[in-house]
Structure formats: structure tokens, C-alpha cells
Amino acid sequence: MLRRRKFLSVLMLGMLSLLLLVSVSVPLTFTTRAFVPFTLNKTMEQLEQPQQISKWFLPATDGIPQTEHMVSVVDAMPGYLTFSLVYDGTKKQFPVVVSRDPSNSKNCIVSLPVVNTLWKEFIDPDPHDDIMGNSIRNLERFTNSTRLYYGYPIARTTISDSSSLYITTSTDTTKSSIQAGILLDSLIQYAGLKKIRYFGKRILYSRHYNTDSVQVFASILVNSTAEPKPSAGIIKKPVTAGKDMLVAEYSGPYRNVPAVYKALEQYKKDYSLVGASVPYEEYHSPGYGFQPDDSVQLKVCFPVF
């Protein structure tokens, strides 16, 4: 019995020694992957351009560039890059492979293969490996968040409204906010007078002809079969329900709203979408005819297909 116990003890010790030997001497490939919602060219931009790298390579925070160590691309070709990372005075290079996602050809998978022993991977990791692996994971987080990547939460929704009352006029640029309020007041009063059901949605869009003149478009969403008379200056327009629309939520000074339009335009370009009509503003905040310093809550909407 005692001899058997000794045998088992020696066997266990031998197995543990063998496992320890394997863990410190046998190289294995460990792969970190990031799923990126962009085409191959757009994904390569995130990995090649220094301005984009600084937004996701740690310690970048929520897309805000920071610098703690040096990272650069030393070699690049379609679908393959080599990163050089200098940390604590030492340098290490990492190959990165970019491939199309087999489940969605419009998306890509970014793979970081690192050859390590089990001991170095889980017990005594190289800080270079940790920084590079965590940065690749952060690339997925950054590119899959419209708030981080474009600056605003952007959603794809379906248009559900049926029709709108619409009016437009040209005015001086300095008077555009006042004129917008006058136009919306006219539409709301007309809807009340004609007993047209008004949903409370107020929409504005403007088009600048030059530095001094602007065309202001105002609209309210309604549910009615009545057709306004041409003499009223108000047009009833159908809204194509069931079509796609990009919607960006915004809260802040009204003067910054043009940046939201720019973000939607970039999103449309990145995902190869085509505008179905002009983008417009839909207000959550009460009132209209806002001044640049007014704080507003609104949605910028962009019908697309």
C-alpha cells in the first residue's frame, strides 16, 4: 500500500513537471480578433493612418487620442500590416491580418496572432503583448460604436409617417431663425384651423445660396386627406413610409448642429448609402427659431436607400 502511494506520488510529480516543462517551452499561437463593421479599404484606413490609430490604440479613451508609448506601422499591404510597438525602452513587432468576415462580406475581421508559451501567455505576459492585444479589442469597441466613431449616436430606422404640410421662403441669413419660427407658426395655425391632426413633430431644413441669402424649409407631420389650396402657400407632401432613415440624436448648443449633418454624411459614405431626400431637423425641445447659443435637444434625420 505504501509502495503504491509512493508510485502515485512520483507519477503525479512527473506529470506536473512535464506540464511545467510544456508550459515554458512549447510555443503556441494565440490569436486576438476584432470584428470591424467596415469594408477592407475602410478597415485598412483605421490601421494605417496615424490619426485613426491614435483613436483606438490604448491608452486612447472613448476615441480621444492619447500618447503613452510609440506605435507605428512599418509595413503594409492590402490585408496585412506589421506594427512596431516601443514600450519601456524596448521594441517588438506584431503582424496583423485583415480578412473579410465570411458571415458579412461588407465587414472585416482583424486578427493579431502572437506566438507564446502557456507560461508567457497566462502567468508572466509580455507587456507589449498585453498592450497590443487590448488595443485590438478596443478597435472593435471603437469602430462598432457610432457615438465613439462619428461623435453622435446614429441609428437606422424605418420611416413611419404618412404625410406632411410644407412651406418655404427665402430670407437674409441673419433672419433665418426668426423666419423659421414664423413658418412653423403658420403651419401649426393652418392645421388647427383646418382641424388637421398634427403629431407635434416640427421639421426644419435650410439651404444657403450665398453668404447673405438662405432658403428656409419648414414642415409638420400630419394625418389628413385634405389638400391645401395653392393660394395658402402650403403644400401637402407624402412621406414614403417603410423606407430607411438615419437618425442622429443631439443635445447641446444649436450652433454645433452642422457637425451632426457632417457625421451623417460620413456615415452614409462609409456604408455606401444614397440619400433619398434632404436631411432635416426634428425637435424634442419646445419652441423653434433657435439662436446659436440656445441649448436644444433634437434629431437630425436623413432618409436613405
From TrEMBL:
Superkingdom to which the source organism belongs: Bacteria
Record's protein name: Bacterial transcription activator effector binding domain-containing protein
Organism per entry: Flavihumibacter solisilvae
